[in-house]
Design a protein that fits this description.
Length: about 190
């Protein structure tokens, strides 16, 4: 682990390569899994606030799920997550473009309808964060459906932390990211 400020970064984030290859996977991470995307308590209020501005971009079944269960839910493990449809697999906020999943929240952000890009857990994926009162721990989450992203990352020689530069800066700031890079260079 590398310690950067109050964040412990697992070495797998540095030593493994990863670049989403959406043309191959079609965004399957948004429609597979045991539950929705992990949410922070603060994100629950954001989802409630922006839902009316995002709704017009969502699928009918996504809207139905939100109207029935709410903009977020507590999953079987007791964690706060995005609402899902289709037996807890497909995120209710999924929309489709040319056979590829797209986040309706992110699309609304790109259109200027909302000022929040998407849940940080989605933006940071494949990094997962474990938060403790005094520090965070960043882990690399290996999921078989991301095989093409691992292969593409190796071809391009892009480590996980470089692929996720923007969301890491969103979460921890530019100074933190610069410190991370300096720590990695000194290894």
């Amino acid at each position: 682990m590398i310690e950067v400020g109050n964040v412990l970064v697992h070495e797998d984030i540095i030593s493994n390569d990863f670049v989403c290859n959406i043309s191959k996977c079609k965004g399957i991470c948004c429609i597979e899994g045991d539950s929705g995307a992990p949410l922070r308590q603060s994100e629950k209020a954001i989802l409630e606030e922006i839902y009316p501005k995002v709704k017009h971009l969502m699928t009918e079944k996504g809207i139905e799920a939100i109207e029935k269960y709410g903009t977020s839910v507590i999953d079987a493990d007791g964690d706060l997550t995005t609402t899902c449809v289709d037996g807890n697999k497909e995120c209710a906020y999924v929309t489709w473009e040319n056979g590829i999943t797209k986040c309706a929240i992110e699309k609304a952000y790109e259109l200027g309808d909302v000022n929040w890009k998407k849940p940080i857990s989605c933006h940071l994926y494949p990094i997962r964060t474990t938060q403790y009162p005094e520090f965070d721990v960043l882990h690399y989450d290996r999921w078989h459906i991301c095989h093409d992203a691992c292969t593409f990352g190796k071809e391009l020689k892009v480590p996980v932390y470089k692929f996720l530069k923007d969301p890491l800066i969103r979460e921890y700031g530019a100074d933190w990211y610069e410190e991370l890079e300096k720590s990695i260079e000194s290894i």
